[in-house]
Amino acid sequence: MKALAVGLLLCLALAACSSGSAETADPDGAGASPTDMVPVPGAPPVPHEVPIDQSGTTFRPEPALVLAQSTPFEAWTPLPGNRIAVHFVTGSPECYGADATVAETERDVTITVRTGRLAAAQDKTCIMIAVVGTMELDLSAPVGDRTVRNGT
User: Based on C-alpha coordinates, what's the Rg of the chain?
Assistant: First the structure.
């Protein structure tokens, strides 16, 4: 029985090693290095582009949040003109809000999302539920081919 368990663990370890090398392959020849595709422990996730039909509950920027903290967004959607939508996880909109800051360069759009309790809901009893939120933000120029990143 012990030999079977060790054999199973060895097979799982070998499968993990072989699948890791397939994930870091560069199928389109774009020149991405393996480190571009592997998340850095403790770093915010690399957000990905999604169509607008995958948006969640609409949140409007609310700068007056209680106990606000940085919340990485998981996806984004380019919008017409100089706008972008970011998609993140937070609490119910009856109790929780979000705000964001945008820093732009010619190559990057870095967005820092903060979530926290609404000031008006401080004395309210709120359910603990995860909600996918979407917040639309203005940019100085369209996203174009710039990289969209999480801020800290």
Answer: 20
